[in-house]
Amino acid sequence: MNSARIAIYPGTFDPITNGHLDLIGRAARIFDRVVVAVADNKNKTPLFTMPERVRLAVEAVSELDSVQVVSFENLLVQCAREHGAGVILRGLRAVSDFEFEFQLAGMNRHLDKDLETLFLTPSEKYAFISSSVIREIARLGGDISPFVTEKVNAALAEKYA
Ligand code: COA
Q1: Domain 3-159 has CATH 3.40.50.620
Q2: Which of 34, 67, 129, 149 is surrounded by the most beta carbons within 10 Å?
């Protein structure tokens, strides 16, 4: 399979949200295969363990045949190579995302000049959500059901019970 037709979508996914799923759905219509890559991000202290984040992501994409979920602890470019991906997919929700994304894309290009970074924008109804905002609202007992799957909602309720 042409590697340009396989995209890797990396993130911490703590937990996966409908905003991520919106992006994955868009990507699945463009690429033959989408690899959702759950990062062991040492810059963050995740609420959910790696196996939990992977399980929630696997459940959330179960109806999308061309989407698979993997975890990785090494460089993203290495993970992309291992899975034959030619494109790194990232979401841009607002201008504030740009600076970090610009740095990430530039560094990944330095590390592997053959990997292209492609940006998609999620539906505007998810433009203002992030995993940490979702966690915060869940912790304080607010309604997050419009922004996560039922299983993620239940998993958050269990964590904060
Ligand atoms: N909808 C809703 N929220 C979204 C979103 C979308 N479409 N896209 C991003 N977000 C949110 C995430 O939930 C996350 O929220 P939080 O910070 O409140 O938890 C935030 O935006 C940023 O997350 P994300 O875009 O997934 O980035 P990240 O910081 O979690 O992950 C990595 C960054 C993992 C991709 C990067 O560190 C990496 O590639 N690491 C691997 C090691 C490596 O190769 N390092 C060198 C890179 S040059």
Answers
A1: yes
A2: 34
Give the type of residue at 21.
L
The pTM assigned to this predicted structure is: 0.95
d(CA 111, CA 150): 38
Catalytic-role residue among 33, 53, 131, 135: 131
pLDDT of residue 2: 54
Within 8 A by CB and 6+ apart from 63, the residues are none
- Ligand 1 atom closest to Cα of 11? 26
Closest to 125 (Cα-Cα) out of 55, 21, 48? 21
Query: What is the DSSP secondary structure assignment for residue 27, as one 8-state letter?
Result: H
Quick one: which of 84, 78, 68, 79 has its CA closest to 28? 68
99-130 confidence digits (pLDDT tens): 999 999 999 999 999 999 999 999 999 999 99
